[in-house]
Every structure is written in structure tokens, then in C-alpha cells.
Design brief:
Two copies of one chain form a homodimer. Chain A is of the alpha+beta class. Chain A is built from eight helices and eleven strands. In chain A, strand 4 and strand 5 form a beta hairpin. The longest helix of chain A is centred in the middle third of the chain and has 27 residues. The radius of gyration of chain A is 19 Å and the shape is globular. Chains A and B meet through strand 5, helix 4 and helix 6 of A and strand 5, helix 4 and helix 6 of B. Chain A binds a DNA duplex through helix 7.
DNA sequence: CGATCTGTTGACACTGCTCAATAGGAGTGG
DNA sequence: CCACTCCTATTGAGCAGTGTCAACAGATCG
């Protein structure tokens, strides 16, 4: 939106000239040269990330695949639809939305991703990304060049299994979202969305009842297949009924069971 | 529905006792003992299946992973939600629908699969299938035990790539379906559905303008997130406008561009 | 401090769902 | 082979949940 087409991956740092050039072009979004190397073993998200279920020795080998981190600031894109696919990304901190574009040019939010989630799988089949990934706050991702990850998967069986499980989990997640979009009322969708976010925060050790929504009502509406007004109204109604309190982007869930019963 | 819980995979044929037992229980759905072995090299679907882009020598090795075929008759289930995940399946002939169940017990069609498509990826992440796969006509699938496929992927790089691409394609397919469900009118959904089927027939060398829909209006409606009446009405309206002719399950598309313009 | 973006709330219209009646087709059994 | 039944598809009428349009209030940011 406000940044032109910029450096897309840390791994291109191997070509020093390119990096320097792109840093001059737009310093804000050029890859930061983090002095530290990735260390999965000490990462808070290691249990839900690519590294999950790896032994220590294998985790060190995965470190060598993670070529570095990339900082993406609020509103910036990690990648765009049409960009050549080179890497998967693991969200270290912050959060993202993915935005697809319909044949008629309408933009639609297809997913939300928080720390520990993986991004970029949309690019594997066509070797080109099929959506934009936009940071919802200042964020940092690990960059995993796909050809290196593939190579390591041929050597480390648990890593191969974990990678396929990640893909499989994305498939299941999306088919559940399809069931939501196809069959639930607007209110049910909003309730299900809140419970989904809640569960994901819990899995990460954060409060599952009080959190801040990083995305706008319009993003939520787009994701849920309803208008932003309907999202707003649903939240207001839930508040009136004492199921939660809303204050802008801050949510506190007061009655998870009642939300679930919607 | 009408068959009890039965033998789920041909590979279990290695345990002769089990097979015999289950054949007695329900002969209709027990795995048939095909005398021929799978031969990807001569399969009509080899270009769009798991075998795509493999060299001849590698295809022979894939044959050894394909432990056999399984016949699934109209209405029978290839697998059920909750079944342990052991194999992926490649549709050799016929077609399937996958049906998920919501928390409230409502059944929803999450996909349609025809010859050359792969089934079962929903089971990878949890090692348990998350939906039912039901034959829409008498069908035959190749059974690919997942652990063997994984092992071969560690040896054959193009096969590894192809497997990941298949997973990636499923992810892209589903996110496109999400965009359809979230943002198109009922009529647009039906039009998009017909064009999707049309394109898939074309890719397989069949007529892209005249075909038979194997599924019911209710299946289509469930998949598209509308009622069966709405599907029926949309088809009637398209017919009135000369975009196609319908006669029960037989469809002839007369104006693809106009359908697309919906 | 104004400008812009985001969120809330109201009024109204319309798409698509529900309920219902009818007809066509496929399969089954006599 | 026909009659019967059940399943599937079509079509109509009325209603309700959501989208659309609009006005306004807060929040954020330079």
C-alpha cells in the first residue's frame, strides 16, 4: 500500500549488493540485519511451530535452515499475491492477516495468524503466492527458505512429518472455516470467531478471556462473510446480554459457554 | 449409513485373517482383491495425480507404494470422521464427496473429488480423519499407505515436491472456496460451481460443456452454503436466460462467458 | 487542533430461507 | 413388467435476517 515492491526475503542477504540496494530504496521495510541467529531451542513458540516434536540435535540443524528474521511493520506486507514463492515464514512475534483478491477485484481476508503460526503455504502449489500477508502490528518472522527445508525433511523424518502436519492442519482449519461460512448465522460466526481467538491465545499461554483484537471490524467481517456493521451489532448484543465486554478492540469474554451455545 | 464400520484399507489384506473376518461381516464393502497391481505408467490420470512429473524409473517405485485398489460403491464410505489415518487415496475412477459435521451435528459437504484427485489429506494433522468420504457413484481408488509414501519422499525429491504441491493445492482450493462462500450471491455461487466442474472435466479431457452432475441439489447447496431450493431456482433461471440447459442431473453449458460474468 | 480512520447505531429494502404442494425418476418387489 | 414407494427436483408464497445507506461519535495521528 504505502511501500513499493521491496526486498522479500532475508535469504537474499547472501547477495550483499541486492540488500544494500534495497535498503537505500526503502529502509523501513528492508530486512533488518539481526545480529543473533535463530535459535529454535530458546524460542517461546517452539512447541507449536515447525520445530515442534524435534529433538535437540535436530533443532540445531533446523536453526541452520532458518536464515534469519525479518521485521514487518504494521500495515506492511510480508509477501504479495504474485510474488515468487521462496520461503515459509514462522511468526515469532506480532500478527498477520492474509488477503485474497476475487476475480472481480474484491479483497477478502482469508486468515489471521499469530505468534507460532506459519505463513506462506499458499505459494507452494503454484510456486507463486496467492494472497497478500499483511502485518496487523509490528511483527517479526523467521524465514525458512523452502528448498532448504525440503532438503532437511529428506534427512530428518520427524521434521518431514511435522511439515506435512502443518500443511494438513491448514487444510483442516480452512475446511472448518468453510463449514462456518456456509452454515452459521451472523451472530454465530462472530461468537465462533471470538472463541477461536480465545483458544489460540490459551494455547500460547496468554489469557483466553481478555485480549486485544488486532484487526478492524471490517477485517473480521470480511473473514466471516458478513458486513462490518453486523459484526459491530453482534458484539453490542453480546455485551447487552452480559456475555462479554467490548471497548473498541479490547475484548473480555465473560461467559464462554453461552457464546459457544450460540 | 447402511454399512457398519468395515475394513478401511487394502493394505490390511496382508493380515489374511482380518480380511476374511471382515468379508464375512459385510461382503459388499470388503476390499476387492484386484489381481492386477497398480501401474501408474499406464494410468490415464498419471498427469494430474501423485505421479505427476515423475520420471519412468521413479514411477515404478511409486507403484510399489500403491498397495492396491479399493472399490467403493455408490453411497459407501471410503473413510469416516474419526477413523485412524493410514493412507492417502487417489481416485482412479468415479467420484466422491467429503462431508464434515458441525459441533451441532449438522452435516456439510466440504468438497467434491473426481478421477485424478487425491483424498484423505484431512487426516494427516491429527492422524485421524476429520470428515467422511462418500462415493457418488461406483468408484475405484488407489491406496497409498502414508508411511510408505513419506519414506519414498525422503528418497525421491520430485515426489516429495509433488506431495507438498498436492497439499498446497488443497489449501489454495479451500481458500478460494472460502472467498466464494464469504462474498458471492447465491446465483454467483451456482455459476462458479458449474464453471469449476467444467474446468475440471476439461483438464481431464472430457467435455467441459456437457456433463452429468453426480451429486444431488442438496449436496451442491450444502457445499455452496445455500439451500437446495436456491440451487434449483438458480439453474432454472440460467436455463430461462439461455445460459445452459438442465435436465435433472444432466447439464449443458451454452454460454460460459455469461456464466462467468455473474 | 483539524483530518482521517474506525466503530456504533438506526431505518429500510431485498436476497435467500422456510414451509408447502406437486411432479418426475429410480429402485424394489410382487 | 407393472405398480408401488421413496427419493429428488421444481415451483410458489411469505417472512426474517442481513446488507445498504446514512448520520454521528471516538480514536488516532501528524
Amino acid at each position: 500500500m504505502f511501500d513499493s515492491h521491496v526486498a522479500d526475503d532475508v535469504e537474499r542477504g547472501s547477495i550483499a549488493k541486492t540488500i544494500t540496494f534495497e535498503k537505500r530504496q526503502d529502509p523501513r521495510s528492508a530486512p533488518d540485519a539481526f545480529s543473533e541467529r535463530a535459535r529454535c531451542a530458546t524460542c517461546l513458540m517452539r512447541n507449536i511451530c515447525v520445530a515442534a516434536s524435534l529433538e535437540d540435535s535436530d533443532m540445531v540443524r533446523l536453526d541452520s535452515v532458518v536464515q534469519g528474521w525479518r521485521r514487518v511493520r504494521l500495515g506492511e506486507r510480508l509477501y504479495r499475491a504474485g510474488d515468487p514463492f521462496r520461503s515459509l515464514y514462522a511468526v515469532r512475534s506480532g500478527s498477520f492477516k492474509t488477503v485474497g483478491t476475487t476475480a472481480r477485484g474484491r479483497e477478502i481476508v482469508s486468515g489471521f495468524y499469530m505468534a507460532g503460526d506459519s505463513l506462506g503455504m499458499d505459494g507452494v502449489s503454484q510456486e507463486v503466492h496467492s494472497c497478500d500477508a499483511i502485518a496487523l502490528e509490528d511483527s517479526v518472522v523467521c524465514v525458512l527458505p523452502f528448498h532448504l527445508l525440503e532438503a532437511l525433511c529428506r534427512e530428518i523424518k520427524p521434521l518431514q512429518r511435522q511439515l506435512l502436519k502443518m500443511f494438513g492442519a491448514e487444510i483442516v482449519r480452512e475446511s472448518q472455516q468453510m463449514m462456518l461460512l456456509g452454515n452459521m448465522s451472523a451472530e454465530q460466526r462472530v461468537a465462533a470467531f471470538l472463541l477461536n481467538i480465545s483458544a489460540r491465545y490459551r494455547a500460547r499461554g496468554y489469557s483466553s478471556t481478555a485480549f486485544v483484537l488486532r484487526m478492524t471490524r471490517e477485517d473480521i467481517g470480511s473473514f466471516l462473510g458478513v458486513t462490518l456493521e453486523t459484526v459491530s451489532r453482534s458484539l453490542s448484543r453480546f455485551q447487552q446480554e452480559g456475555l462479554l465486554t467490548v471497548q473498541g478492540k479490547s475484548i473480555e469474554l465473560l461467559n464462554l459457554d453461552a457464546l459457544d451455545a450460540r
